[in-house]
Amino acid sequence: MASHRHSGPSSYKVGTMSEKFDCHYCRDPLQGKKYVQKDGHYCCLRCFDKFCANTCAECHKPIGADSKELHYKNRYWHDTCFHCYKCHHPLANETFVAKDNKILCNKCTTREDSPKCKGCFKPIVAGDQNVEYKGTIWHKDCFTCSHCSQVIGTGSFFPKGENFYCVTCHEAKFAKHCVKCNKGLVKAPVWWPMKDNPGTTTASTAKNAP
C-alpha cells in the first residue's frame, strides 16, 4: 500500500488591498484591508469564510483564509486537523496512507495489516514471537492452557474442540485411570491414538514486510 503526501496550497491568494476595490459579496471597501482573491473575485475575510471557505473533513468547520489548508483527493483539512485516524499523530509534514476513506500514519498502517493474535486480539508486529497451529496464530505468551492458564508456547499440548490443554491438565481431566491405583494410564502420548497425541506449534518471529 503506497504512502502519499497531501497536495499543495489551495488556489486563492491572500493580501492587503492597495487599490480601490469592494468586496464581491458585501460590497464593503477593501482598500487598506486584508482580502482574498479567488476565481477572479476579491472578497473580505469575513465573506470568504462564509461563502468560499472549504469545510474541514475532520472538525467540519470552515477553513479560514488565515488558516493553513491541506487537501487530498477533493477533501480538505486544517493543518492541525490532519492526523492519523488511529493514534492522532499529526501528519501535516509527513507521508500517510489513505485506507477505507481514513488517513493513517505508516506505523498504524503496518499494525492494521498485521495478523491478529487469537488470544489477545492485538496485532502481531515485527519482533513479536508467535506460534501457529492449523492456520491460527498467537503471541507465544498468549498460547496458554485452557484450564490452568500456564503458557504452552512451543510446548506439547492436547487440542479439544476450541480449547487447548497442557499435558498435565489433559491427563488430569481426560485420561483413563487405573481402577486399582487411580493413577492416570497415560504416561506418554504413545498410549493414545494418533489423533490424541499432543499437538505441535510452528514458532516464528514476526518481521517487517519487504
TrEMBL record:
<dbReference type="Pfam" id="PF00412">
    <property type="entry name" value="LIM"/>
</dbReference>
<feature type="domain" description="LIM zinc-binding">
    <location>
        <begin position="54"/>
        <end position="114"/>
    </location>
</feature>
<dbReference type="GO" id="GO:0005737">
    <property type="term" value="C:cytoplasm"/>
</dbReference>
<dbReference type="GO" id="GO:0007517">
    <property type="term" value="P:muscle organ development"/>
</dbReference>
<feature type="domain" description="LIM zinc-binding">
    <location>
        <begin position="115"/>
        <end position="176"/>
    </location>
</feature>
<keyword id="KW-0963">Cytoplasm</keyword>
<keyword id="KW-0440">LIM domain</keyword>
<keyword id="KW-0862">Zinc</keyword>
<dbReference type="InterPro" id="IPR042997">
    <property type="entry name" value="Fhl1"/>
</dbReference>
<dbReference type="InterPro" id="IPR001781">
    <property type="entry name" value="Znf_LIM"/>
</dbReference>
<dbReference type="GO" id="GO:0046872">
    <property type="term" value="F:metal ion binding"/>
</dbReference>
<dbReference type="GO" id="GO:0044325">
    <property type="term" value="F:transmembrane transporter binding"/>
</dbReference>
<protein>
    <submittedName>
        <fullName>Four and a half LIM domains protein 1 isoform X4</fullName>
    </submittedName>
</protein>
<keyword id="KW-0007">Acetylation</keyword>
<keyword id="KW-0479">Metal-binding</keyword>
